[in-house]
Specification:
- The complex is a heterodimer of chains A (214) and B (235).
- Chain A contains 5 helices and 13 strands.
- With 214 residues, chain A is an alpha+beta fold.
- In chain A, strands 1, 6, 7, 8, 9 and 10 form a 6-stranded antiparallel sheet that branches.
- The radius of gyration of chain A is 17 Å and the shape is globular.
- Chain B has helices at 70-88, 98-114, 154-165, 172-189, 222-225, 229-234; strands at residues 19-21, 24-29, 32-38, 41-43, 46-49, 55-59, 62-69, 121-129, 131-137, 143-145, 148-150, 196-203, 206-209, 213-214.
- Classes of the chains: A alpha+beta (214), B alpha+beta (235).
């Protein structure tokens, strides 16, 4: 193996060229993501899980460099775990978002990471925090991210409504992610959905054959 | 230690912004200081975040707004909050004045400028402490007190409007109208502007941040509606 090749700038780092999405509905939130991890033009992982566990009711969606986001998520998971142990109750989603924000802001020139933090807490209910490249934190009712998101801004602006039901929100996320995967070369594979509510977490696996837009 | 890149050894040098906030306009009026921003944060050319509050209340009588990199704006809000908290430790009832915040921000900006790692912001501090206070701190740490301030594109388009329709002894409503006119012009001529704006003012009673409002712009001029190219090329 020629190591100089790997270290040369021609070697494409593994990224989560991706489509990620989170939407708050009346009673919880739905998270959706595609499953393609690309290394340049090569699909390194065709069935990845981009919905990362941070805490029992807090998840993060990662886009950008896979190495950067995985490492940061690992640190934040550890910090939130320690914090929750001391606190003795569920941590606030804003706490996790803030911990991510500290990394993304302090190391903004070294990192290529944009993250959506989504979860439920007993203090403010379902919340979504978008953390784009520079390290700002913006709270939203719905958020899309990753390279595939560029293709579905119009779709999402047209179809988003406030206070959707679970079924409406699930259909919205499913179709939006499917449309993005349809046109974005860096997104593809299967769709993973996650429903976060006060009482439970429900994961859903949408097989390739069931993706609504192909 | 890990959350401070200087100490952990990974000194960063930020010279290009990612998520940016648009122009800011601030005017002194007879009872205090009025500031206005729009509610948009852009991601390059994309109008990504459309409902952002970019006006921060730093203390009972001080407001901070800025244009430029939004994450740096959020960072400055934290830094300024630290000043008030550490002043509490003296337990003498003395709170930092608006000018203290302005001065601190100027020193902080200059320090970062010297390390070629600036806070990518044009900062405006507005306050009322026995008298009106309005200051601009730019990306290099230059500190300028003034009766009116514009940042970004507003510096090109709005100074003429302000010169003609505002004076420092006007009423609050007059000052609000001037700022609304300025944002109408900006919405027409600045690609990175939005027509939903937010106003806030500080007076002797304290700070008041208003709800966002949409400015009315006129597009149905005859000259606009009837400027058909076919007339140009067939007559």
């Amino acid at each position: 193996m020629n190591y100089t090749e790997i270290l040369s700038p021609k070697f494409e780092p593994e990224t989560t060229g991706t489509t990620i999405m989170a939407v708050i509905y009346d009673g919880g939130l739905i998270i959706g993501a595609d499953s393609r991890t690309s290394s340049g033009q090569f699909v390194a992982d065709r069935c990845a899980d981009k919905i990362d566990y941070v805490h029992d009711r807090i998840f993060c969606l990662r886009s950008g460099s896979a190495a950067d986001t995985q490492t940061i998520a690992k640190y934040v998971r550890y910090y939130v775990d320690a914090h929750a142990q001391e606190l003795g109750r569920l941590p606030a989603v804003a706490t996790a978002a803030n911990l991510f924000r500290n990394f993304l802001y302090e190391y903004k020139d070294s990192l290529s990471a944009a993250i959506i933090v989504a979860g439920w807490d007993p203090y403010k209910g379902p919340q979504i925090f978008t953390l784009p490249l520079g390290g700002s934190v913006i709270e939203q009712k719905w958020s899309i991210g990753g390279s595939g998101s560029t293709f579905i801004w119009g779709f999402c602006d047209a179809n988003y409504k406030e206070n959707m039901t679970l079924q409406e929100a699930r259909a919205f996320v499913l179709h939006a992610v499917a449309h993005a995967m349809y046109r974005d070369g860096s997104s593809g594979g299967i769709i993973r959905l996650l429903n976060v509510t006060k009482d439970k977490i429900e994961r859903e696996f949408i097989d390739y054959k069931d993706v609504p837009v192909k | 230690m890990i959350f401070n890149s200087e100490i952990s050894g990974q000194q960063e040098h930020t010279t290009s912004p990612v998520v940016t906030g648009g122009s800011v306009i601030a005017l002194v009026y007879n009872g205090g200081v009025l500031v206005g921003t729009d509610t948009l944060c852009s991601y390059g050319s994309m109008a990504t975040f459309k409902n952002v509050q970019k006006i921060a209340q730093i203390s009972k009588n001080t407001i901070y707004v800025s244009s430029g990199e939004f994450s740096d704006f959020q960072q400055v809000v934290r830094e300024l909050a630290k000043i008030d908290r550490s002043a509490l430790q003296y337990d003498d009832g003395v709170h930092p004045s608006p000018k203290d915040y302005g001065n601190y921000l100027a020193r902080l900006s200059y320090k970062k400028r010297c390390k070629i790692n600036p806070l990518y912001l044009q900062n405006v501090i507005a306050g009322f402490d026995n008298d009106k206070y309005l200051a601009l701190v730019d990306i290099y740490g230059t500190y300028l007190e003034s009766k009116f301030i514009t940042t970004g594109f507003a510096s090109y388009f709005c100074k003429a409007i302000i010169s003609n329709y505002w004076n420092e002894n006007c009423s609050l409503d007059q000052a609000k109208q001037v700022i609304r006119e300025c944002f109408k012009v900006l919405f027409c001529r600045d690609c990175r502007a939005h027509d939903v704006i937010q106003l806030a003012y500080v007076d002797a009673q304290g700070t008041h941040i208003e709800e966002p409002e949409r400015v009315e712009t006129k597009w149905d001029f005859n000259g606009f509606k009837y400027r058909a190219n076919e007339k140009l090329h067939t007559q």
